[in-house]
């Protein structure tokens, strides 16, 4: 039988891994990293479930997708599982990023050193404001947007972060795609139109705030 993948699913050893499972992997990765730092070498699905506040069967189901991580009566080898999930997520290797828009948000992202610990290295920033060109933020140079395609063709850039006004984002995203970028982290409040093989993750903090607002409002209404 032919199996069809929906966008975002991955195929591992002829097995379809759902988007939902993939979306949970960063959380497993984070928890296992912390557990490993505590010096714990192995952990049962039950213990992990208590820490992560998900059911043990969910954990077993999720991790069984990748095979061979756990052993009956032994539990999971924390370091091994951590490394394997890291490999699946592709963070066992370096990813080079560029940030488009060197304003408040672009600065904050570039100043955040923890991305590098996960292998995400910001190589350059781009802007259109003449007074910003040539400046550096944590040794990351700001280039003019005119040099975008040239820079991408000369450096191995996989991911672009868009932190520019929304009315500029669609045009810049098109240029990024034409220059070969395959993944965009989009902070601009607009939907991007990209080909199917380009991955876009939208981060709209205001959406989270609206969700919180809804929850807070319903709490106060029920009081
Ligand atoms: N998604 C979120 O949760 C979230 C949160 C904060 C801000 N934002 C959005 O992110 C964007 C940036 O916010 P900010 O506070 O950093 O704004 P900002 O005004 O401080 O910075 C924007 C920068 O983009 C530059 N720019 C404008 N057009 C450009 C182009 N075509 N190419 C390259 N650079 C260009 C500007 O010169 C400026 O330096 C805005 O669209 C804002 O709405 C989103």
Automatic annotation (TrEMBL):
<dbReference type="GO" id="GO:0045892">
    <property type="term" value="P:negative regulation of DNA-templated transcription"/>
</dbReference>
<comment type="similarity">
    <text>Belongs to the transcriptional regulatory Rex family.</text>
</comment>
<dbReference type="InterPro" id="IPR058236">
    <property type="entry name" value="Rex_actinobacterial-type"/>
</dbReference>
<dbReference type="InterPro" id="IPR036390">
    <property type="entry name" value="WH_DNA-bd_sf"/>
</dbReference>
<dbReference type="InterPro" id="IPR036388">
    <property type="entry name" value="WH-like_DNA-bd_sf"/>
</dbReference>
<dbReference type="GO" id="GO:0005737">
    <property type="term" value="C:cytoplasm"/>
</dbReference>
<dbReference type="GO" id="GO:0003677">
    <property type="term" value="F:DNA binding"/>
</dbReference>
<dbReference type="InterPro" id="IPR003781">
    <property type="entry name" value="CoA-bd"/>
</dbReference>
<feature type="DNA-binding region" description="H-T-H motif">
    <location>
        <begin position="27"/>
        <end position="66"/>
    </location>
</feature>
<dbReference type="Pfam" id="PF06971">
    <property type="entry name" value="Put_DNA-bind_N"/>
</dbReference>
<keyword id="KW-0678">Repressor</keyword>
<feature type="domain" description="CoA-binding">
    <location>
        <begin position="90"/>
        <end position="191"/>
    </location>
</feature>
<dbReference type="InterPro" id="IPR009718">
    <property type="entry name" value="Rex_DNA-bd_C_dom"/>
</dbReference>
<comment type="function">
    <text>Modulates transcription in response to changes in cellular NADH/NAD(+) redox state.</text>
</comment>
<dbReference type="GO" id="GO:0051775">
    <property type="term" value="P:response to redox state"/>
</dbReference>
<dbReference type="InterPro" id="IPR036291">
    <property type="entry name" value="NAD(P)-bd_dom_sf"/>
</dbReference>
<keyword id="KW-0963">Cytoplasm</keyword>
<keyword id="KW-0238">DNA-binding</keyword>
<dbReference type="Pfam" id="PF02629">
    <property type="entry name" value="CoA_binding"/>
</dbReference>
<feature type="binding site">
    <location>
        <begin position="101"/>
        <end position="106"/>
    </location>
    <ligand>
        <name>NAD(+)</name>
    </ligand>
</feature>
<protein>
    <recommendedName>
        <fullName>Redox-sensing transcriptional repressor Rex</fullName>
    </recommendedName>
</protein>
<keyword id="KW-0520">NAD</keyword>
<dbReference type="InterPro" id="IPR022876">
    <property type="entry name" value="Tscrpt_rep_Rex"/>
</dbReference>
<comment type="subunit">
    <text>Homodimer.</text>
</comment>
<keyword id="KW-0805">Transcription regulation</keyword>
<keyword id="KW-0804">Transcription</keyword>
<dbReference type="GO" id="GO:0003700">
    <property type="term" value="F:DNA-binding transcription factor activity"/>
</dbReference>
